[in-house]
Amino acid sequence: xxxxxxxxTQGNNHQSSQAPAPAQAQSSGGGESLxxxxxxxxxxxxxxxxxxxxxxxxxxFDYSQSVRTSNQSVPEQQITAYLLKMQRxxxxxxxxxxxxxxxxxxxxxxxSENVCEMLALMPESVSSLExxxxxxxxxxxxxxxxxxxxxxLERAFGxxxxxxxxxxxxxxxxxxxxxxxxxxxIDVGIVIDLEPARTEDPALSIAGAVQSQKLAVxxxxxxxxxxxxxxxxxxxxxxxxxRGLTGYDRVMVYKFHEDEHGxxxxxxxxxxxxxxxxxxxxxxxxxxxxxxxFKQNRVRMIVDCNATLVRVVQDGALMQxxxxxxxxxxxxxxxxxxxxxxxxxxxxLTLAVIINVGxxxxxxxxxxxxxxxxxxGHHTSARxxxxxxxxxxxxxxxxxxxxxxxxxxxxxxxxxxRVLRTQTLLCDMLLRDSPTGIVKQSPSIMDLVxxxxxxxxxxxxxxxxxxxxxxxxxxxIIEWLxxxxxxxxxxxxxxxxxxxxxxxxxxxxAVCGMAVAYITSRDYLLWFRSDTGxxxxxxxxxxxxxxxxxxxxxxxxxxxxxxxxxxxxxSMPWESAEMDAIHSLQLILRDSFIDAEGSNFKAVVPxxxxxxxxxEMDELSSVAREMIRMIETAxxxxxxxxxxxxxxxxxxxxxxxxxxxIEEAMGKSLIHDLVHKESEEVADKxxxxxxxxxxxxxxxxxxxxxxxxxLKEAVFVVVNACCSxxxxxNIVGVCFVxxxxxxxxxxxxxxxxxxxxxKAIVHSPNPLIPPIxxxxxxxxxxxxxxxxxxxxxxxxxxxxGKMLVGDIFGSCCRLKGLDTLTAxxxxxxxxxxxxxxxxxxxxxxxxxxxxxxxxxxxxxxVNMDGQIIGAFCFLQIATPEALRIQKQPExxxxxxxxxxxxxxxxxxxxxxxxxxxxxxxxxxNLTEDQKQILETSAAxxxxxxxxxxxxxxxxxxxxxxxxxxxxxxxxxxIDVVVSQVMMLLRERGLQLILDIPKEVKSMTVYxxxxxxxxxxxxxxxSMVRYxxxxxxxxxxQLKPSLKEASEGKNILHIEFRIVCPGEGLPGEVVQDMFHSxxxxxxxxxxxxxxxxxLKHMGGEVQYIIESERFYFLIAxxxxxxxxxxxxxx
Length: 1129
Known about the structure:
Elements: H1 30-53, H2 63-68, H3 76-87, E1 91-92, E2 97-102, E3 107-112, H4 115-118, H5 147-157, E4 168-171, E5 178-186, E6 189-196, H6 206-224, H7 231-246, E7 250-256, E8 262-269, E9 280-281, H8 288-296, E10 299-302, E11 310-314, H9 334-342, E12 347-361, E13 364-379, H10 387-432, H11 437-440, E14 453-458, E15 461-466, H12 471-485, E16 490-493, H13 504-507, E17 513-518, E18 524-529, H14 556-566, H15 576-592, H16 609-632, E19 638-642, E20 647-650, H17 652-658, H18 662-665, H19 670-674, H20 680-690, E21 699-703, E22 715-725, E23 731-740, H21 742-745, H22 758-762, E24 772-776, E25 781-784, H23 786-792, H24 796-799, H25 818-832, E26 837-845, E27 851-862, E28 868-877, H26 880-887, H27 892-922, H28 928-949, H29 954-957, E29 966-969, H30 970-979, H31 982-988, E30 991-995, H32 998-1001, E31 1004-1007, H33 1009-1026, E32 1033-1044, E33 1050-1061, H34 1067-1074, H35 1082-1096, E34 1100-1105, E35 1109-1119
Parallel strand pairs: 30-32
Antiparallel strand pairs: 1-11, 2-3, 2-6, 3-11, 4-5, 5-6, 7-8, 7-13, 8-9, 10-12, 12-13, 14-15, 14-18, 16-17, 17-18, 19-20, 19-23, 21-22, 22-23, 24-25, 24-28, 26-27, 27-28, 29-31, 32-33, 33-35, 34-35
Helix pairs in contact: 1-3, 6-7, 6-10, 6-25, 7-10, 10-15, 10-27, 16-27, 27-28, 28-30, 28-33, 30-33, 33-35, 34-35
């Protein structure tokens, strides 16, 4: 691959990460990932042994042979030797030197052979009259450096978190040359990595180091300013930022896929370099041992892959070679250096991208670090980046990881929304049609997960879609499933051959992977994927015919070919989220499909009315059960009451907020038991209205809290009331969908404008004065008040003048980790840059070791001339409730998405009831007028379903809306449109005038009937709403004309005029309709969407105001069937 080389970021290419695995269960977890990692360790160890036996140059190492023999067993000794070489290799790079010290007595226990040369300890470097300090095992390390440097080392050795002090700036005693000392603890002491610092290096001074941090913060601000929902843009931006900071010829982002194989997903490079964007490579290209090292040491720099390595000399009393896992100088593996040379890269910088992933562990959520990928820089000549700048890059990577994690969560939520919508539509098809509708209509089961084909095997019949096996082959597959996996609920595999299917070869590359969901003992849903090679494209693979790659040579092209080799006859793996979607659909369908011995599906064999009604109710119950599960797990607080006002619904979120469990809440009175006294009257009024059909919105309630951790606290929620109705349309209860707004209601005193004497206030022992500290422009502490002394245990004299980042918060006040330090650094730099931070959660250990939690507010400090001279900070001691609120994820948009999905689904249920009632009425003897009314009702129902389907307005906005062309009568559309405004006309005392030729009303045309009636109804509704009242009028005029289109087709052009007297629509409605990006009024939003739908259908609308009237002029074309031509005059 294109990062670096084996044993580092990369190496030769071998067994696929998608190693043969028996057919997997439908849901995969962390255990599967762990087993893959353990298996890969073994493969890595075997490759290491082969390379070591190939000689020093590695030229006899046969790359192709490595791929072919990847399944050979590996002795345990080889695995041990491999890990020992990776972590305790005994060599460092030559751009620096290393000393290991016993931290109890400062005695040297190991050193690199170039220490004497770098520190000028050679005999010829000093006068023979002086006493020479020669470095040996047992030398006191302090004697090698200047006295001031020794003091710094002593202080660092005593620090709890030694790595937070890096780099320590020290000087050689003999030569006076400056060095960056980078310290870390190991099992036998402390390792000091010494990197020479040029005196002209701007990063050497404190101001220069702070400048490096400022550059990183600027890049971080750029990342944070990006619009959400675009992971590609985030990755593209971070490679540009890193390249701008470091100056490497090429910077790339590598992503590790779920099956551990890698892909280059972003790249910024010199124009003349070959592109690596799109490159895929096997998992073993980056060994698991290297991935472990990146979690421990997140920044890895190789200065010159051709440079001679330096041996480490150590005390013979040590039990094993020195651990170099955390060393910045650790030598690259020989295989890695050879790979870099082959690809023309001399220097590299690799930055780990770490994200936190939550896992359920015995009901409790725990966070684990996962190596998502790498950001890698390549340079075609030797390049050394000073440690402060590398440290700044590490800060940038931490923020990138946090930002990426948020984007991944958002993508997951959007995917969940898409899957939920698809599942809902598929279930709706089952209610309306036979099971075959889920493969014959749109959306289909192919839309649920990414695949090349899908199929339904139902009652012995085969319904294929896309790229699938033949019917004979599918029957053979099902026989194999029954014989080999009959006791499971499903199967997923990326290789049918590896899963043991004997007929896999006959399927070829078209069908390699398969996921199966068993619905009944004889009914199956199947999804298929083709060979991975068909899905993967990389521009770098298209090299000239005269190029001849050596199959034995390690190179990105070889990596790519090896990846294609190991995934041959193998599809892209099924991801856990995809299998969850399949499994969820499987659970829903099991209740909808009846057992093999039972009666047929409702659309297949007609049933008596009574049985049909029961069957419909069973199906509705099935969908309802699934929706109840979604409500219970929703991230929005949702609760419900019956007509008597007692709780009959209480989801997990509201239980979490109030501290009262679902079981305890059931049956309690909402008003008397759960609502706070000050909200009782509001809640009583809200419930009174809802039980009479008035659904109030955005009502604030204060709820009581229960349990020890909720004492003296309250929860504020803003709720919308939704009436619950039975099949007879009687109100039987109220459902409340809420939003937690406690954060906005928590009252905390804030230190604001200081009007009196600054010092008197800041240093007052008055308990009302909060802990305050301040920094200068170089992040040195310039203020530390009495409250801060009391809060931390550190006196003002101990603290003033020290660096706030690292010295004070890091060493004196120990932090939990580097992530906290990064966040604190960003807050300080933002404040100095003029960007305030309010109530930032900030935790640390005080002098006595007690863990304290606070909320940090940081603002800029200015002098009399208005120039920024630093940052002013104060802490508020955080209550558990305040911290919980501050740390709540900013996922209100996700809650809204789920609320909307819930409401849309709940609307479907009564609509299904209306549809069922209409179907019963259709079977009775009706007059012609009654039939017309029934048809109008059915058309309104279809319009409502279409609106629910169009709830994702992006399709309307971007013009990708799918239109449905059907044949319909114009008069029936007019009747439906008029029916939707009749109630409002009566309420406002308005008269409706219809000026429509009779022959036009009876005409049949082609078009999207439901959307036409939606558009006309919306425009008519607006006119009725704003017409003069009472005794006003609204008129609908219809003027047809015939025109001939291409290919001899005839088009009916119709102008609809909706006219009424008056001054016109409100200005904001018109503005929203035609111009606004951010709408102000609901009416304007609706009209804007209708205008865009109309445009998508080839029509247009004008809004015209005349002297005493205003009207909409809507023009739309309808194709005509041949028989309608005679009606056009």
